[in-house]
Write a structure and sequence with these properties.
With 476 residues, the protein is α/β, with parallel strands linked by helices. The protein is 39% helix and 22% strand. It folds into two domains: 269 residues, 3-Layer(aba) Sandwich (Aldehyde Dehydrogenase, Chain A, domain 1); 188 residues, 3-Layer(aba) Sandwich (Aldehyde Dehydrogenase, Chain A, domain 2), CATH 3.40.309. The protein is globular. Bound molecules: nicotinamide-adenine-dinucleotide.
Length: 476
């Protein structure tokens, strides 16, 4: 069932051919399903030269023509969503409906970039002198190197590819070796949509070796990375030393503030769905739950009762609501957070254990009475764990919510417009969602501040990181 995996370089799908390879495991069973070929130095050099050559033509291809390829990708993605989704479930673990939904939803990203590419405007600045024309032009930055993660393997990759290609850049993408099928499927989609050879290249390997090699090449002018803060800082430091542009979409530790005046039960129901989506392996996952004292008991009781409906199992089974964690190392990581909570006297209200068996299954976990300096309240868990604490006033909770170096997503639930304004103004985050979950749409900017990174994906801002600004002044 699972597809054959390949590199995609200069318009060719390249299989093993004696290259180093690694196993790709099914996280529901930990059984190997396929071998993933790693790029050799020669492959990386070919990807670089091919992307450079393709850039000279692609940059001059009209936005309308570039948009046609992106629209075709959207159409093909919808057609193939079932197959691509099934393979995402097999290598990443999320329930089939989530995996198929990811692909269908992402077709919109391709369409959005096709539409916005036609609106990459410059401007004319009135001159001080007759006969002078002053223009601001926006030009594609060049060859991009992008590194996308395993939690939303289709979503994170297609956003980077569409932003680069829509802007007129070419791109070399290293996808997640843990969950590679979606990126190979993407290469096939772009290939079949008629993208010229070299505009998109897909490579695999040892992550730091590949990123180091590509980033140091003078051909590469821009880096885009989604992943952990730790790796992001390393790559940003290297990019800085090489004076290359970056978009960094890094980890978060999203606070959720539930006020006394919120619609408590509706908030709890929504939050269970959102917290345990993709087994909590989501950079915008709600993780630190601050619940106001008057609402606390009602919220906790409803949250726990709703949690009963989160059935854990193999993502291919129809009644599964939460699949396995994507790798065995995530189970170990989550166990570390739980041990720390235990040692600090916190109360485990639900879960708190791995579920045994062959796969990386972990029980949806809820922990209360956490000290503010516990690991769960200070480090990104990236798993199916919610930490619940109480707060008294809006002023106090804002200080606590803003106390960490992260600044990606944040959430609040309240029926008071005064609270909503105070929270949306006061939360230090790239994104604030009040009374619902409304992030990551194609037309809205996605990105963080502080340690969560810089630059936006999606929205009107999506091409900013892929364009140079050139000022031209001309006298008759
Ligand atoms: P990790 O830090 O080892 O890797 C995170 C991602 O970065 C992986 O996809 C990996 O292949 C890639 N990577 C690692 N080193 C790299 C390098 N030098 N150059 C290029 N790419 C590199 O952690 P992990 O165990 O894979 O994932 C767990 C942590 O990663 C989580 O705690 C979470 O913070 C973070 N993460 C964040 C996102 C996100 O959407 N922001 C996605 C996946 C993982």
């Amino acid at each position: 069932m699972y597809p054959q995996l390949s590199l995609y370089i200069d318009g060719q799908f390249i299989h093993g051919g004696g290259r180093p390879e690694q196993d790709v495991l099914n996280p529901a069973t930990n059984q190997p399903m396929a071998r993933l070929p790693h790029a050799t130095r020669e492959d990386l050099d070919l990807a670089l030269s091919s992307a450079q050559r393709a850039f000279e033509t692609w940059r001059k291809t009209s936005p309308l023509e570039r948009g046609k390829v992106l629209r075709k990708v959207a159409e093909l993605a919808r057609e193939r969503a079932q197959d691509i989704g099934r393979n995402i479930t097999l290598d990443q673990g999320k329930p089939l409906a989530e995996a198929v939904g990811e692909v269908v939803f992402c077709a919109e990203h391709a369409e959005w970039h096709a539409e916005e590419a036609r609106r990459i405007y410059g401007r004319v600045i009135p001159a001080r002198q007759e006969g002078v024309r002053q223009m601001v032009l926006r030009e594609p930055i060049g060859v991009c190197a992008a590194f996308s993660p395993w939690n939303f393997p289709f979503n994170q990759a297609i956003r980077k590819i569409c932003a680069a290609l829509g802007a007129g850049c070419t791109i070399i993408l290293k996808g997640p070796e843990d969950a590679p099928s979606a990126v190979v499927a993407l290469a096939q989609l772009f290939h079949d949509a008629g993208l010229p050879a070299g505009c998109l290249n897909v490579v695999w390997g040892v992550p730091h070796e590949v990123s180091d090699y590509l980033m140091r090449s003078p051909i590469v002018r821009k880096i885009s990375f989604t992943g952990s803060v730790q790796v992001g800082k390393q790559l940003a430091a290297l990019a800085g030393s090489l004076m290359k542009r970056c978009t960094m979409e890094l980890g978060g530790h999203a606070p959720v503030i539930v006020c006394d005046d919120a619609q408590i039960e509706a908030a709890a129901d929504m939050l269970v769905g959102f917290k345990f989506r993709n087994a909590g392996q989501v950079c915008i996952s709600p993780t630190r739950f601050y619940v106001q004292e008057g609402a606390y008991d009602k919220f906790v009781s409803r949250f726990l009762s709703r949690l009963q409906k989160v059935k854990v199992g193999d993502g291919l089974l129809p009644d599964t609501r939460m699949g396995p964690l994507a790798q065995a190392r995530r189970v170990t990581a989550i166990a570390g957070f739980i041990d720390d909570a235990h040692q600090r006297g916190a109360t485990i209200l639900a879960g708190g254990t791995a579920l045994g068996g062959e796969g990386n299954f972990y029980a949806p976990t809820v922990i209360a009475d956490l000290p503010e300096d516990s690991r769960l309240m200070t480090e990104e868990p990236f798993g199916p764990v919610a930490g619940l604490v109480r707060f008294k006033t809006i002023e106090e909770v804002l200080v606590r919510a803003n106390s960490l170096p992260f600044g990606l997503a944040s959430y609040a639930f309240t029926t008071s417009s005064k609270n909503a304004a105070a929270l949306s103004n006061g939360l230090q985050a790239g994104m604030v969602s009040i009374n619902h979950f409304g992030m990551a749409l194609a037309e809205t900017p996605f990105g963080g501040i502080k340690d969560s990174g810089y630059g936006s994906e999606g929205g009107l801002e999506t091409f900013d990181g892929y364009l140079n600004t050139k000022f031209v002044t001309q006298m008759d």
